[in-house]
From TrEMBL:
Enzyme Commission numbers on file: 2.4.1.-
Keywords carried by this UniProt record: Glycosyltransferase, Golgi apparatus, Membrane, Signal-anchor, Transferase, Transmembrane, Transmembrane helix
Broad class of where this protein is predominantly found: Golgi
Entry's Gene Ontology BP terms: protein O-linked glycosylation
UniProt-recorded name of the protein: Hexosyltransferase
Lineage top rank: taxon: Eukaryota
Location in or out of the cell: Golgi apparatus membrane
The keyword Membrane is assigned to this record: yes
An MF annotation (GO) of this entry: hexosyltransferase activity
Membrane topology label: Single-pass type II membrane protein
Family recorded in the similarity comment: Belongs to the glycosyltransferase 31 family.
InterPro entries linked to this entry: Glyco_trans_31
Enzyme superclass (EC): transferase
C-alpha cells in the first residue's frame, strides 16, 4: 500500500499503522507512506524520528506540496518497482481513505482469484473517468497552453484509491520519466502514462460498481440500508480524522462480535 501523506499528518499515519500495517486477512499488507521534503527544521526532525521508529516513510527531495503530487507518485513507483517484486498487487491510496481490508479480500480479491488464479496482468482498478472535461477554473485549473483539448481523450483514475498489477510498476515508472510532466497526478500517472504505454486495461470498481467511492454520503447510506455485512463498498474517502476513527471503531466492534458468535474469542469486546 503506497499511501500519499502530507508531511504534518502524523496522526493519520498512526491511524493507518494501527489499522493496516502488516495486517494479514488473509494476506500481509505492507504500508509505505510517501512524503515530500520540508523546509521547517522542527518538522524535518520529527519526520526523521518517525522514520527511525517505524521505518515506513519515503521522503523525496521535492517539496511536500499539492503541485508535487505527481513527483510523489513517481517516487512511489520507483521504490515499489525495486522493492516489491513479490507483491501480488499494489494499492495506492490517500491518507484520508477508510479501507475495509477484510471485505476487500473476501470480495474483490476472492473474485479475482476465481476469474484468474494466476492473477490479472497489465490492469488498473479504480474509479475510472472517461471523456472527463479539462478544468479551466478552480483547484484543478489547467491552462490552454498546457493542455489544449477541452476533454481528456484517455481514461484516467480518481486518485484516492487505485489498484495496479505489479507487472506495470517498472513500465509506468520508466514512462513517467519519459513523457512531459503534468502536475495533476491522477491525470498524469493514471491516464497519460498508461495511454503512452498502451495495452493497459482499466477496470471500473467505482461509480455503479459500488466498491469504492469518493462520496461519504453514498457509503453511509449504503451501510445504513444494508449494514456493514451487506454494504458493497470497501473503500471510501473520509476526513482522515473523526470520520476515519468512527468507521474503524465500528468495524472493530463488528469483527469482534463475529468472533464472539463463532466462539473464536471469549471475553469483552475490544475498545
Amino acid at each position: 500500500m503506497l499511501v500519499h501523506s502530507a508531511a504534518a499528518h502524523f496522526s493519520r499515519r498512526t491511524r493507518y499503522r494501527q489499522a493496516y500495517s502488516n495486517s494479514s486477512r488473509p494476506h500481509r499488507l505492507k504500508v509505505v507512506f510517501l512524503i515530500g521534503h520540508v523546509r521547517d527544521a522542527k518538522l524535518q526532525i520529527d519526520l526523521e524520528i518517525e522514520n527511525r521508529e517505524h521505518g515506513d516513510t519515503l521522503i523525496g527531495t521535492f517539496l511536500d506540496t499539492y503541485q508535487n503530487l505527481t513527483l510523489k507518485a513517481v517516487m512511489g513507483y520507483r521504490w515499489a518497482a525495486e522493492n516489491c517484486k513479490e507483491a501480488k498487487l499494489i494499492i495506492k491510496m490517500d491518507d484520508d481513505v477508510f479501507f475495509n481490508a477484510g471485505k476487500f479480500f473476501d470480495t474483490f480479491w476472492y473474485k479475482q482469484q476465481q476469474k484468474n488464479p494466476q492473477g490479472q496482468q497489465r490492469s488498473i482498478f479504480c474509479n475510472v473517468w472517461e471523456n472527463a472535461p479539462v478544468g479551466r477554473t478552480g483547484k484543478w485549473r489547467v491552462a490552454k497552453d498546457l493542455y489544449a483539448n477541452n476533454i481528456y481523450h484517455f481514461p484516467y483514475c480518481a486518485g484516492f484509491f487505485i489498484i495496479i498489477t505489479t507487472d506495470l510498476l517498472a513500465p509506468m515508472y520508466k514512462a513517467a520519466k519519459t513523457i512531459d510532466f503534468f502536475w495533476i497526478d491522477d491525470v498524469f500517472m493514471y491516464g497519460m502514462v498508461p495511454d503512452f504505454i498502451g495495452g493497459i486495461r482499466f477496470w471500473q470498481i467505482g461509480l455503479k460498481s459500488r466498491q469504492i467511492t469518493e462520496t461519504y454520503k453514498l457509503y453511509k447510506r449504503s451501510k445504513e440500508k444494508h449494514k456493514i455485512s451487506g454494504c458493497s463498498y470497501w473503500a471510501v474517502l473520509t476526513d482522515g480524522d473523526k470520520l476515519f476513527d468512527s468507521e474503524q471503531n465500528e468495524l472493530i466492534q463488528y469483527e469482534n462480535s463475529l468472533k464472539l458468535k463463532s466462539g473464536n474469542q471469549k471475553g469483552p469486546l475490544l475498545n
